[in-house]
Each structure stands twice: as C-alpha cells, then as structure tokens.
C-alpha cells in the first residue's frame, strides 16, 4: 500500500511524526511524504524533522508566504502532479491548514481516498480560515479520524456518519513519546534564565489576534501588565514577528516581556511543563498545557477543544481590554481542572495505521 502524506505547517510535522513512525513499522507500506513549503524557516520546519526523527520529505513544493487563494491554489496544483506521478492508495492530511485543504481537494478530485487526521473539530466561526479548511476537508474525506467524542458528534451533525473513527489525539501520542526525550535534552530554562513555576508562557499567531491591530495592542499591553508580577516568555511565530517589528507595536512592548525565536518541539514541551500559566491562541498548545497539567488561558472567544474548558483546564478569554486579559492570565495561575482522560490512551497513531491498512477505499 502506498500512502501519500501531505504536511506543510509546524503542528503537522509533530502530528505526522508519530503516524510516520507507525507506518514505517509495516513492511507492506510505503509512505511518500510531501512538504508543501507553507512553513519554511528552519525554526518552523527543519528543526522538527531533525529532532523528531521524521524522514526527510520526498518532495518540498516550496509554496508558502502567499495569500490564502494563491497558496492553496499553487499547493493544489503541485500536489495533483505528485498524485499523478506516485499513484497513491491513500492521501493522508492533518489538521486544518491551507496545506490540509489543498491535499484533500487534490486527492478527492482525482478519486484518491482521503484520510483526515484530526477530523470533526469545529469552532463554528466561519471567519477563521481554519474552519473553512476543516469543514471542506471533512466533507471530501473517506476516513475521518476524530480525536474526541465531540468531534465525532460534530461530523454526525453535518451528515458525515460513514468513515468516522474515534481515534484519540495524535498530539497526545507525541507528548508521551517525545516527553522523556524533551526532559533529558532541553536546556531551554537555563538558556532563557527561567525558574519552573515562575513564568507565564505565551504564544500568539491567529489571524484574528494579529491582523486585527487593536487586538494585538491590547494583548501586548496585557503582557506588560503580567510581566510586572511574573516573568513572561514568548516564542514569537513569524506572522506575529513581522508585526512586532513595526514601530506601531515595537514601541509598546516592555523589555520585561521576553521575546524569543520559535523553539523546537522538545524545548517547547519543557517551556510548557515549567510554566505557571500558559496564555495562547494555539490549538496544540492548549492541549499540551492540559497534558502537562498546567493551567491555560486561551485568548479567543471560542475553542475547538471545548472539553478542556468543561474540565476546568482551560479558560477562554475573548480579546477585549488589556486589563481584562492581564487579570485572566494572572487568575489562571494556580488553577487546576478535573482529573479526566480526554484524548485517548496515547495509541491514536497505531489505531490510525491499523484502520488505514484494513480499509478498502469505497
Ligand atoms: C498556519 C495555519 C494555522 C496554523 C499555523 C500553525 C492556515 C490558514 N493557517 O498559520 O491554522 O495554526 O499555521 O503555526 O493554513 N512565515 C514565515 N516563515 C515561516 C512560516 C510563515 O515568515 O516559516 C510567514 C508567512 O510568510 C506569512 C505568515 O508567516 O506571512 C503567516 O504564515 P501562514 O502559513 O500563511 O499562516 P500561519 O499564521 O503560519
Ligand atoms: N510549538 C513549538 N515551538 C514553538 C511554538 C509551538 O514547537 O515555538 C509547537 C507546540 O508545542 C505544538 C505546536 O507547535 O505542538 C502548535 O503549533 P501552532 O501553535 O503553530 O499551531 P496550532 O496548533 O494552533 O495549529
């Protein structure tokens, strides 16, 4: 069986790492890994291939840094060429990025079955590009690997019943598999000069928080306020970095807020583990905070991972005034949630590969 895997953005490298490892354990499976090039800085891409031991991509299409239409369209055409050349039995896509949609659409139009890992997530906010990507991807997929029961229900509500599999979350697999390696190798706390439980870890990259300049300013002012009480460290995503370099924003940031370059996954896990609180708009980081039992404040109006909110591990803080945001982050410190098991047993990748091997495309 030949599997064509399409990845392109940081969280997809982490998700695909655990599934690729599982695929490699089967002699009768050949995986062809295509990187769309959506993320291209070494610290957004190469570092993950190196430290997570992901096989080098068979092909990098080099298509990143463009508008939604230009990027998705070029990726679609590029992936179509690869499908023509490789004739895969399945195309596997991850998450909700433009690369996900391009891979799914290219395959579906060529009658190659699509397997979607992390299917069924919904924010019910169609202004998010990710929501469009995930809804469309789910509707052209034959196998839909849902991480949670809620995701399974979301699919059923849209009439997608066949092909759903409650698989658990591959990011949980990754956290377990690489967690020990992270603790043994990362020196990030010493490098940045941080003490466990004495800092807030921040990540911000959503379009709604960055492209909206008023929101970004309130977030920056809130972080300044937080940094008066506790250290703040922020590995800055390139989308956000480009904005923070502009005068309008750079003059607002207190030197107490430590801006650092994006870090590799192993360093990130250690930063998350040591944090007193995580403030983020990232999907993956919300869950990793829960895996590591660290309180999380999500700077958004809604989340696709509602079970984190219901179990008390995550608090939503819609971006309004800086004072409200700062108070939410500081209040989050020391809070805990219920002892619940939300994302499976750490065997999602194995289950996904087993189902792929068993499934004859419809
Ligand atoms: C994308 C995904 C988002 C995901 C995020 C993970 C879409 C629509 N969005 O958002 O769902 O949460 O990845 O991080 O697919 N850039 C660089 N260097 C890089 C990567 C990006 O400079 O290595 C710049 C791009 O040139 C662009 C900006 O960052 O100007 C945004 O990149 P893009 O891939 O369009 O979206 P993300 O915000 O990364
Ligand atoms: N991450 C990382 N380095 C960073 C920031 C995030 O390795 O500097 C990891 C993080 O641990 C998680 C994933 O990237 O596994 C989340 O990706 P991101 O926040 O870019 O996207 P999202 O999950 O929101 O789609």
Features:
binds uridine-diphosphate-N-acetylglucosamine; globular; 6-stranded parallel β-sheet; 7-stranded parallel β-sheet; binds uridine-5'-diphosphate; 46% helix; alpha/beta; 362 residues
| Estimated structural class | alpha/beta
The span between the termini is 15 Å
Count the E strands.
13
As residue ranges, the low-confidence spans are: none
Please indicate the percent range of residues in DSSP E strands (runs of 2 or more): 5-15%
Describe the structure.
This protein has 17 helices and 13 strands. The strands form two sheets. Strands 3-2-1-4-5-6-7 form a seven-stranded parallel sheet, with helices on both faces. Strands 10-9-8-11-12-13 form a six-stranded parallel sheet, with helices on both faces. It starts with a strand and ends with a helix. The protein has helices at residues 10-24, 46-51, 68-86, 98-109, 129-139, 149-157, 170-185, 188-192, 207-210, 213-226, 238-244, 247-250, 265-274, 283-291, 306-310, 322-332, 348-358, and strands at residues 2-7, 30-35, 59-60, 90-94, 114-117, 143-146, 164-166, 199-203, 231-235, 257-260, 277-280, 296-298, 314-316. The chain binds uridine-diphosphate-N-acetylglucosamine and uridine-5'-diphosphate. Uridine-5'-diphosphate is lined by residues 10-11, 14, 203, 205, 235, 262-265, 268, 282-285, 288.
Helix and strand layout, with pairings?
Layout: E1 2-7, H1 10-24, E2 30-35, H2 46-51, E3 59-60, H3 68-86, E4 90-94, H4 98-109, E5 114-117, H5 129-139, E6 143-146, H6 149-157, E7 164-166, H7 170-185, H8 188-192, E8 199-203, H9 207-210, H10 213-226, E9 231-235, H11 238-244, H12 247-250, E10 257-260, H13 265-274, E11 277-280, H14 283-291, E12 296-298, H15 306-310, E13 314-316, H16 322-332, H17 348-358
Parallel strand pairs: 1-2, 1-4, 2-3, 4-5, 5-6, 6-7, 8-9, 8-11, 9-10, 11-12, 12-13
Helix pairs in contact: 1-7, 1-17, 3-4, 4-5, 7-13, 10-16
The protein binds uridine-diphosphate-N-acetylglucosamine (UD1) and uridine-5'-diphosphate.
Residues 9-11, 38-41, 44, 64-65, 96-98, 129-130, 205, 237-239 line the site of uridine-diphosphate-N-acetylglucosamine (UD1).
